[in-house]
């Protein structure tokens, strides 16, 4: 129970942990492959709209709820609206976080495999096609992907069991800046590739004919996933914020840095995709098949490759600990469970579902529900449905139900005209723009209409 009152020690710690949660596989693995499947520039444009017009206000809403109540996601809604249906948000958050943790750990496990592959110089395989086949063989091999998923989840356990300040904050402070530096180096390298123009055109030139309702749904899901939004992750983290943490600034910094990493990942991947004659719409395998081709063509390729996958692994870790914290805080505070026991419960659930997701690329690849493998189903259900539903509930709650004085007090903006404008804009987005846009995308994207 002492954890409940824990707080992040420094401003840098707040930014590093929040950005650490946001930045991860969502930016470096998921964004490029979703953009690759959904027409590049058009997808980026939709993603940007949802990040800045809907995402930033909803981040503020989660921060307001979390810091005001100092509680886990379920406890927070229970405290603010006792006995009301808003408490359902708690369940959405916990289910979504467990679904995401399960498939996310599989991909994080792939990064661990690739650390070892890099150290072994990809067993001497250096052609783009050979590296492509190497990934397929690995992903379909059942045992190794499952093993890495479990190893990854155990790493999570070891950090989470140490608690908020010692475990999470310290790690994020070091890792996040390192990741930025290495991404910038790789982006510069990609900008010198022969097919750079094609790659950048694919990423930045929107082809509006590619915008269909399902691309809108995918772009909305990507924005929520990438910002760790709509499942109470930021409610839980902001319950550890101090009273003087500036919420609006932290929301913008998180969204800005998160977007920067996704764009950098796109700048790294797409020139390489075209240079090495790969298919942009390759799906979840894209990054793992393309990146090694980039690395081994660099001087000192083995070192770059190892370093990159270590950082990607660590960036995944800062994200998975934030999603685990949602259910751990819930078990600890609502069921008075001991922190270590709650952490174990969370990890065991993820190991069971994570194993099934890992096998989705191997012996369970024919097992589908509504045409989705389990891995894809968990991803689609959480990102495209549960998170936007959670975002809608949160925005309506803060926009319409929560006492305006609480919103004002937590946002704590100055009396300057620009601050007054920011306040009005955030409230307007929460009351009207976010619920209407999310609702419309659901109606059209899911084919309800
Ligand atoms: N935002 C993370 C990423 O982009 O990799 C994923 C994520 C973390 C989603 C935490 C949800 C969450 F609660």
Folded structure, characterized:
The chain has 449 residues and is mostly helical. 76% of the residues lie in helices and 1% in strands. It has 18 helices and two strands. The longest helix is centred in the last third of the chain and has 35 residues. The chain is globular and about 60 Å long. The chain binds 4-fluoro-L-phenylalanine.
Which SSEs are present, and which pair or pack?
Layout (H helix, E strand, L loop, with lengths): L10 H12 L2 H13 L3 H29 L3 H8 L7 H32 L8 H12 L3 H18 L3 H27 L5 H9 L8 H14 L6 H6 L8 H29 L10 H11 L4 H35 L3 H21 L8 E2 L2 E2 H28 L2 H8 L5 H29 L4
Antiparallel strand pairs: 1-2
Helix pairs in contact: 1-8, 1-12, 1-14, 2-10, 2-12, 3-4, 3-9, 3-10, 3-12, 3-16, 3-17, 3-18, 4-5, 5-7, 5-14, 5-15, 5-16, 6-13, 7-14, 7-15, 8-12, 8-14, 9-12, 10-16, 10-18, 12-13, 13-14, 14-15, 16-18
Question: Brief overview, please?
Answer:
With 449 residues, the protein is mostly helical.
Topology as H/E string?
HHHHHHHHHHHHHHHEEHHH
What's the main sheet like?
2 strands, antiparallel
Strand content: under 5%
Q: Structural class from helices and strands?
A: mainly alpha
Which runs of at least 5 residues are low in confidence (pLDDT < 50)? 1-5
Count the beta strands. 2
From the alpha carbons, calculate the radius of gyration and give it in angstroms.
21 Å
Question: What topology, given as strand order, has the largest sheet?
Answer: 1-2
What is the overall number of helices?
A: 18
* Secondary structure: helix percent: over 70%
What hetero molecules are bound to the protein chains? Answer: 4-fluoro-L-phenylalanine
Overall mean pLDDT? 92
